[in-house]
Write a structure and sequence with these properties.
about 220 residues; alpha+beta; five-stranded antiparallel beta sheet; 2 helices; about 10% helix
């Protein structure tokens, strides 16, 4: 940008086919055998939360949907805050080093109607300067946004791989190494969903929804 600032985001990938539901990979006629493909189970999110992550920890958060309808409430006031934070802690312990130091991560309680499995899962990750803060604490949200859209002189080595200059070319052979994996807790067992070809297995456990809060010192959320 003209003022020397930068914006963080995942390296863009070429879109080879539109998102779709398919029982087999046969429908992916435009993807070759070596092309990484994101896949996901079809689930219903009964609640969704926006988490603003700062240096690998949740800095502030807010609920924003319940059963698909707007339902905004500060995370620190939410009855499921402890369970959300337990899941977020486990997720960030496993994957924070694959994310920018300031980023938005949406999570939610997901139900798979076919298998009956349910548990917390990642909805998506986005640039902090792009995201609605809902009922997040404004001053804490500003910490995250300012880091994500700060001057290039303050850019850390950790964040440099996430910088994209305006008009930069997209590498059609780029990998999906920075795609956030999905880790869910289901019936007492951790479950890691493979969302891309190859490397995505993360050995971690996610506590049950109504477990006790961890002893970890946490932000106010």
């Amino acid at each position: 940008m003209a003022d020397g600032s930068f914006r963080q985001g995942y390296p863009r990938q070429t879109l080879y086919f539109s998102a779709q539901q398919s029982a087999t990979s046969a429908a992916l006629t435009d993807a070759d055998d070596d092309r990484p493909v994101l896949v996901s189970d079809i689930v219903t999110f009964t609640s969704e939360y926006r988490l603003l992550v700062f240096d690998g920890r949740v800095h502030t958060g807010s609920r924003y949907l319940t059963s698909g309808h707007p339902d905004v409430r500060a995370l620190r006031e939410d009855t499921d805050r402890s369970a959300v934070m337990d899941f977020a802690d486990a997720l960030l312990d496993a994957a924070a080093d694959t994310l920018p130091s300031a980023v938005t991560v949406d999570v939610g309680w997901a139900v798979d109607a076919d298998s009956g499995d349910e548990g917390f899962a990642v909805v998506e990750a986005n640039m902090a300067w792009f995201s609605n803060i809902y009922a997040c604490q404004p001053e804490r949200a500003l910490d995250v946004v300012m880091r994500a859209a700060g001057p290039t002189g303050d850019l850390s080595d950790r964040d440099r791989p996430f910088v994209r200059t305006v008009g930069s070319a997209v590498d059609p052979g780029a990998t999906l190494d920075n795609v956030l994996p999905t880790v869910t807790w289901n019936h007492g067992r951790p479950r890691v969903q493979r969302r891309r070809t190859g490397r995505c297995q993360i050995p971690t456990t996610c506590p049950p929804r109504h477990s006790r809060p961890s002893s970890r010192s946490r932000e106010d959320g």
